[in-house]
Amino acid sequence: MDSKIRAAIVGGTGYTGVELLRFLLRHPQVEVAQVTSRAQEGVAVADWFPSLRGSTALTFSAPDVDRLSDCDVVFFATPHGVAQAQVPALLARGVRVIDLSADFRIRDVDTWEHWYRQPHGCPEAVAQAVYGLPEVNRAQIRGAQLVACPGCYPTATQLGFIPLLEAGLVDPTRLVANAASGTSGAGRQASVDALLSEASDSFKAYAASGHRHLPEIEQGLRDVQADGAAPAQLTFVPHLLPMIRGIHATLYAPLNTTGEDLQALFEARYRDEPFVDVMPAGSHPQTRSVRGSNLCRLAVLRPQGRDTVVVLSVIDNLAKGASGQAVQNMNIMFGLPEQAGLEALPLSP
Amino acid sequence: MDSKIRAAIVGGTGYTGVELLRFLLRHPQVEVAQVTSRAQEGVAVADWFPSLRGSTALTFSAPDVDRLSDCDVVFFATPHGVAQAQVPALLARGVRVIDLSADFRIRDVDTWEHWYRQPHGCPEAVAQAVYGLPEVNRAQIRGAQLVACPGCYPTATQLGFIPLLEAGLVDPTRLVANAASGTSGAGRQASVDALLSEASDSFKAYAASGHRHLPEIEQGLRDVQADGAAPAQLTFVPHLLPMIRGIHATLYAPLNTTGEDLQALFEARYRDEPFVDVMPAGSHPQTRSVRGSNLCRLAVLRPQGRDTVVVLSVIDNLAKGASGQAVQNMNIMFGLPEQAGLEALPLSP
Amino acid sequence: MDSKIRAAIVGGTGYTGVELLRFLLRHPQVEVAQVTSRAQEGVAVADWFPSLRGSTALTFSAPDVDRLSDCDVVFFATPHGVAQAQVPALLARGVRVIDLSADFRIRDVDTWEHWYRQPHGCPEAVAQAVYGLPEVNRAQIRGAQLVACPGCYPTATQLGFIPLLEAGLVDPTRLVANAASGTSGAGRQASVDALLSEASDSFKAYAASGHRHLPEIEQGLRDVQADGAAPAQLTFVPHLLPMIRGIHATLYAPLNTTGEDLQALFEARYRDEPFVDVMPAGSHPQTRSVRGSNLCRLAVLRPQGRDTVVVLSVIDNLAKGASGQAVQNMNIMFGLPEQAGLEALPLSP
Amino acid sequence: MDSKIRAAIVGGTGYTGVELLRFLLRHPQVEVAQVTSRAQEGVAVADWFPSLRGSTALTFSAPDVDRLSDCDVVFFATPHGVAQAQVPALLARGVRVIDLSADFRIRDVDTWEHWYRQPHGCPEAVAQAVYGLPEVNRAQIRGAQLVACPGCYPTATQLGFIPLLEAGLVDPTRLVANAASGTSGAGRQASVDALLSEASDSFKAYAASGHRHLPEIEQGLRDVQADGAAPAQLTFVPHLLPMIRGIHATLYAPLNTTGEDLQALFEARYRDEPFVDVMPAGSHPQTRSVRGSNLCRLAVLRPQGRDTVVVLSVIDNLAKGASGQAVQNMNIMFGLPEQAGLEALPLSP
Predict the structure, then answer these.
(1) ipTM for this model
(2) Nearest CA in chain B to D15
(3) Which is nearest to A280 in space by CA: D46, D56, B240?
(4) N or C: which end of chain A has fewer CB within 10 A?
(5) How far apart are CA B121 and CA B107, in angstroms?
(6) Tens digits of per-residue pLDDT, B62-121?
(7) Residues of chain A with C-beta less than 8 angstroms from the C-beta of B170
């Protein structure tokens, strides 16, 4: 490719921002043209993120539609509610948008407004958005102008349940997703609960009575069910891990049949997926094994040979759960090799 | 009480050993007379456990039935298989025994031998053993000569499910226990998997296809079910937390009815229990809140008002999950106040 | 003792507050009568600190001099600047005050104002305050009405240097204290730097060009030097550890003589101290070994037999470094056994 | 470059092994031809290191001089003592060797044998070895057939002291290096001390009376001193951090003069170094900021304007402290761009 893709990151001062920069600054076909932040306008990006010292001369700029329109693609690494306001003008100018926030993930605007407790700022763009889970929607992503990147829990959970639901092997009304995330999922905001003194050396569930990722996951699961199936219904309990990166989802479902070769089913489903690794029977994927990479590793088992299937699914919440998947989507949208810029191996130990 | 109870600890070089010492050395009615270890015979206990420097002049001695018989009570903090060999002689001499290992927890010897992959060394004593979960068996513990202390996962799991199963409110054949433990549960043995470099900053399931605590939990759950109920059947997946102490069990069950006031049910069940704390509706108990104490904290909820009940249960695996519960059992056996020696408050933060 | 000491804690919502409560609620001769907090007035203490559920029925009250005057002793667990305003009225009414903040630690008011960048609100009480390091000032503490509890770094550092400086064995102008603290030292304030995502799995120095504990340490060291000695001068670099509790100070000084038996010197100096443990030659005290206890453990060595002495000193920053030492001071002030309420053994592992 | 460099790793089952693979499997001009392990012969590398699943089809082979001689370069990631036995045969066949162990770091064989407590197996090759610290020995590395990669502590410590010693600004007989390392420095061996249950949530010094890196550091420091200077003498105390990766060295030295612009000195010394980052005055480099990268970040300061200089130095012990530096050396030896294969940005958070 002759000229590089010009990319901008809106709201680049948080963890998904620095993770996007980690991938994009080393992407062979991308030039990061802008990183915006109203609060840090004028500050050198490498002063804000010392890990980037020596790797970039960018400074944070104020977000400006005209300037952003010079770019081929704009990533939104903003809290929900922000992209809604800025996306329409960019779409109108032909810029492609990859939104890492929740703004365009849920097709039903009422549902979105119920869970996010605010009016949706741009309902007309929702229908246009493609849900950026390449393992399901690769073809639509290719032609999309607006991609809504899945949430971290939804990515880990859907990739684990999809083969079972597509094949109709489980009772879809009794799904359980017991998930746990490192603290980086809460972002880079000052808070007491996420202090090391509070969150380390401890473990707890949170938002057990209802987490915003629930409707997103149920929507995604229903999308892959066969016509006529009872709509997927999930009990979803997220937990906070005393560590930085990683999501582990432990998924449970009652099997309709115990005759199926589940290992073969999963391997066949993901055979051609560059970022999904079905581990051998008996494996226990650990979050460590995907740290810093865009991989999802899965294992499937049927404990004691009984009629409950268990799927273990791990991702790095900042990579496949956010910024890595965003770059994967960009690669698909621009016809690049899907692994471009995402080749770095997991950091281990 | 005039004279103190003379206690011995067999196999005192591990984590349950030092935790027993932490409680017993400060117990107002106990004198720790012996701590045994073949491997460390002659070594000062305070040299082995620097945390105890200045608090005890004991040295490890070789285990000897005659000397142990001088004691009123002997705690076994040994790997499974050890207590079986030594317990009969002690029982014959009238010594009371509290076994922290798995040797006498399972009433069906065949089941024990299947899961622990060795012949049981003392099947005749199994029937005599009382399962030391005071919240269920307090009366029998009072008169017991041999108490089998429950495992850590079984304690957290049973305390969470008991009110539901006693009341017959859930489908007992579709129970799920998603549990997670700190690394101290694996004991103080050299191992690669439990290195900080391997286990920290990561999370994984283990023994997902079958953990030895499964038959123990199922036995305990079935014991509290009403006659005629379908026997409890559990899917149990343990996970390894990147932290030292604490067990968190997240329990799921399909409700037979959604009309019951679950909060009231739990509060009534545990009203008089000194070590079980039913937290207010909406709570998320964290392992931190019980660290170093003998408490179990519980919360019960019905996410989204649907027909799945979720129970959150936390204990300190070394305290209520092992050594603390052992001391609680001793207090009951000897007619002491149940909280004697267990008053220390959780360490926070 | 017939009636219990009535104690109040002003500013009890932070880590030194909950640690005071952990000690005082189990102190056999103390009744905690009040815990104040303007911000949390009316909130149950056990709702704020779930670790205390079941152990106290107190609610936070607004600080009020009249009500506080009902108490025998008032602990200030407040940020610096607060005690200064409230202490005079309490002293005037004969209440004894133990201040855990920095307000009364430094005798030279100009120095205090320079380092704390604000006018001192109560310079007239400074001279009255006794610096509450029992190992140096036990006699004065006994009769004091106002005790200024030492800071955490100052406690660990002074206890390590004192034997050397008292004996005049080192060049006092070339002292180095390389110290490291867990994050609980930063308190329970929302902050980005102390997030688990920022502070775990990392290590750094901070305030290397000048930390507020420097003048406090130098004052304390100079107090124990013989007349005529060159005043102690310290290079002090604190570091932030990826853990919650514990301070480790590694102290360096050039020896004037290499003929001295340093081990014997240290053992003699601290022989009668209930909370200072001089470990055997060759030991490496770890913070773990004092966690949750009021102990300081020390080791002294002369690497390679050269002329630099190294002292290793560990404390729990919230215990001997703050709330434990405060209770120790209270015990001394009220003629109680010095270890009362402080008997709990370190939590290990 | 037309054909790729064929590389072998001897002893590839540990942490420096997997870190070499992380770099070399993504190095554009390298083909990893062999990874040896006697113990794991025949095991797939990706089964041993799940983080590498999908990235390599290699299996561990037994080390064999003939087969190794097919390679252009052989890395030894073995415990000390191993390379000594195998290196001569490889050198004789013209293979280039990069030894990550301590076998060839110390020029004085007696000193080596004293500290490593065994006879040196290949003293004749010692003189031939070039000490692989590129910032000092780049020219010699270029032509070397055998490079001895520096230890982790020696790298961080030397890079911090070099500018001061070269310029003769400090008293070289009073150097102090207070250093701390993550647990990965202890390697992937089963051990009690390095268990998460032992090493997390705690901090301690170790080997304070004499660590094997001391003679290596002193040799390196003396090499850069001007003729006639008093030979560098160091007090070196390493500590164990409750985290996986990272070394932080805090260096102290008495200044001969306080008139020098230390910031300018450091910046000038490292201006052209691709992997040394001198941070702005007032910075506190954190290990986090170099995690996974080959960088060393430094800060220099003079606390309180006194006459002691403090240098803060951080590296990733497995990267710049071992495998990254080994790849840097390889790049220099083979005339490749020095940053080839080492471009990945630090993982943050």
Answers:
(1) 0.97
(2) B197
(3) D46
(4) N
(5) 14
(6) 999 999 999 999 999 999 999 999 999 999 999 999 999 999 999 999 999 999 999 999
(7) none
